[in-house]
Amino acid sequence: MELRRDVFQAISDPTRREIIDLLSDQSLNLNAVAGHFSITRPAISKHIKILEECGLIIVRQDGRERYCRADVHKLKEIDKWLNRYRKFWNHKLDALGNFLERGDDEPSGDNTIKYK
């Protein structure tokens, strides 16, 4: 049975997030990527494989070298999903700020947010 990975699993690891950041500005071979970390090259290769499976990086073979670059389009899907919760929390924090500015115990209006 093949393990299916998703973007959220990929970005849950701090090393993988650092790899994405590193590759967002430049294309690097595996040795160059590994050189930025204090973990082994096989460990970096495993992280690269997970990121590639999730579509967050693209690996290109050039002779004996494998070059990696970030494909941040997939991160836009995460941002879209998170935006729903960002709106929710911004609304809640605005309501809290208004409540604290008023300094009274009476809530004003309907402070619920509806999801679409």
- Just name the CATH architecture of the largest domain: Orthogonal Bundle
Shape: elongated
Structural class: alpha+beta
Q: What is the beta-strand fraction?
A: 5-15%
How far apart, in Å, are the first and last alpha carbons?
35 Å
Count of helical stretches: 5
Helix content: 40-55%
Q: What is the CATH class designation of the largest domain? A: Mainly Alpha
Radius of gyration: 21 Å
CATH homologous superfamily designation of the largest domain: Winged helix-like DNA-binding domain superfamily/Winged helix DNA-binding domain
| Main pleated-sheet profile | 3 strands, antiparallel
What is the residue-averaged pLDDT? 86
Number of strands: 3
According to CATH, what is the topology of the largest domain?
Answer: Arc Repressor Mutant, subunit A
The total tally of domains equals 2
Q: What are the low-pLDDT stretches, counting only 5+ consecutive residues below 50?
A: none
Strand order of the largest sheet: 1-3-2
Order of helices and strands: HHEHHEEH
Summary?
The chain contains five helices and three strands.
What can you see in these coordinates?
By secondary structure, this protein is α+β, with helices and mostly antiparallel strands. The protein has helices at 7-11, 14-23, 30-34, 41-53, 73-102, and strands at 28-29, 57-62, 65-70. Strands 1-3-2 form a 3-stranded antiparallel sheet. 13% of the residues are buried. The model has no long low-confidence stretch (mean pLDDT 86).
